[in-house]
Amino acid sequence: MRRVWCGALVLALVATAACRGGGSSARRAAEGFLDEHYVRMDLEAAKGYCVGVARVKVEEEQRLVGDQQIDASTRKPHVGYALAEERTEAGDRVALLYDATIRFDDGDTTALRWLVTARREPDGTWKVSNYQEFQ
């Protein structure tokens, strides 16, 4: 029975990973960025997904945070998000709209929307070129 449970868990994880987008895609870049920026709260890692305006925004956030460290002891909110809409703006630009829910340990919940714009770079990879959040 334990093998069946482990096998089912592995299949579920593989299926979940497949749904996140395969290969180098706009959605994969956007969700990698969202995971690093909002879920893990790792701005340096989030910056790796960015170019242009998005990179400048993350660097400004890093400047504002300063030397305040976010590590395993930091109480982080629980962040979940789902793709609400994807729109190709040009062959090399895609806008992705996400519905996000942020739950805090005290029971409060905040709903946000994130608009992430990704563009295909000359080397064929996708990077986040801009993002904004709103309610």
Please, what is the average pLDDT?
Answer: 85
Give the low-confidence spans. Answer: 4-23
Task: Write down the overall geometry.
Answer: globular
The total beta strand count reads 4
Strand order of the largest sheet: 1-2-3-4
Strand share of the residues?
25-35%
CATH-assigned fold name: Nuclear Transport Factor 2, Chain: A
CATH class call: Alpha Beta
Helix content: 25-40%
Structural class: alpha+beta
Total number of helical segments? 4
The secondary-structure element order is HHHHEEEE
CATH architecture: Roll
The tally of domains stands at 1
Roughly how many Å is the radius of gyration? Answer: 17 Å
Main β sheet profile: 4 strands, antiparallel
Structural overview:
This protein has about 140 residues and is α+β, with helices and mostly antiparallel strands. It has a single domain, classed as Nuclear Transport Factor 2, Chain: A, CATH 3.10.450. Helices cover about 40% and strands about 35% of the residues. It contains four helices and four strands; from the N terminus they run ααααββββ. It has a four-stranded antiparallel beta sheet. The chain is globular, with a radius of gyration of 17 Å. The N and C termini lie far apart (about 45 Å). Residues about 5-25 have low confidence and may be disordered.
